[in-house]
Design brief:
The chain is 52% helix and 7% strand. It contains nine helices and four strands; from the N terminus they run E-H-E-H-E-E-H-H-H-H-H-H-H. The N and C termini lie far apart (42 Å). Helix 1 links the parallel strand 1 and strand 2. The chain has two domains: 76 residues, Glutaredoxin; 119 residues, Glutathione S-transferase Yfyf (Class Pi), Chain A, domain 2 (Up-down Bundle). The chain has a four-stranded mixed sheet, with helices on one face. The longest helix is centred in the middle third of the chain and has 35 residues. It catalyses: RX + glutathione = an S-substituted glutathione + a halide anion + H(+). Belongs to the GST superfamily. Phi family. Its EC number is 2.5.1.18.
């Protein structure tokens, strides 16, 4: 069986999300870099894979997919085993909680945290844009409120969907990894259960492997 292909730079948060899931299930894969500075993602070849001209794109034989969370779920479904079941679709209630916290990451956690990553790392270090401290301060206040909810949840369960690791947890890895390279990483110290959860995620072999490919710019 030919390896699946993931198109995009490995240090991209959305690309890393997909690669992490492929690593977790142990599938063979190939990462095909896309030259973002050279606008390769807008080329006809890449638009044939992702009509929106974004990353990642994904190929499994004749199947082409885009949108990192959708790709990740496809991978986790296709390669699910009794030992690796990160969507928990065999249990309706557990699967529902995986879905809930996956949605929370996309619509509540990430919108609070990602502006901090952009303002502290991506903008100044990669695009020469100065940090907007007002945006950072506002986002930190939003993130604190989100982390209060996470702290309460994780004081009762080891992971977000329950006492089992799932896609809901892995989904948080890419942006949180970069957040931990900002000057505001110590915020997690105020939420001990959140910090312990993050440390459990970082101890996973697949996470360690992908983290090594995501060297963040220095804040």
């Amino acid at each position: 069986m030919a390896p699946v292909k993931v198109f995009g730079p490995a240090m991209s948060t959305n690309v890393a999300r997909v690669i992490l899931c492929v690593e977790e299930v142990g599938a063979e894969y190939e990462v095909v870099n896309i030259d973002m500075k050279g606008q390769e993602h807008k080329s006809p070849g890449h638009l044939a894979r992702n009509p929106f001209g974004q990353i990642p794109a994904f190929q499994d034989g004749d199947l082409l997919l885009w949108e990192s969370r959708a790709i990740s779920k496809y991978v986790l479904r296709k390669y699910k085993t009794d030992e690796v079941d990160l969507l928990r679709e065999g249990n309706l209630e557990e699967a529902a909680m995986v879905d809930v916290w996956t949605e929370v990451e996309a619509h509540t956690y990430n919108p609070a945290l990602s502006p901090i990553v952009y303002q502290c790392l991506i903008g100044p270090m990669m695009r020469g844009v100065p940090t907007d401290e007002k945006v950072v301060a506002e986002s930190l206040e939003k993130l604190k409120k989100v982390l209060e909810v996470y702290e309460a949840r994780l004081s009762k369960h080891s992971y977000l969907a329950g006492d089992f690791a799932s896609f809901a947890d892995l989904n948080h890895f890419p942006y949180t990894f970069y957040f931990m390279a900002t000057p505001h990483a110590a915020l997690f110290d105020s939420y001990p259960h959140v910090k312990a959860w993050w440390e459990r995620l970082m101890a996973r072999p697949a996470v360690k492997k992908i983290a090594a490919t995501m060297v963040p710019p220095k804040a």
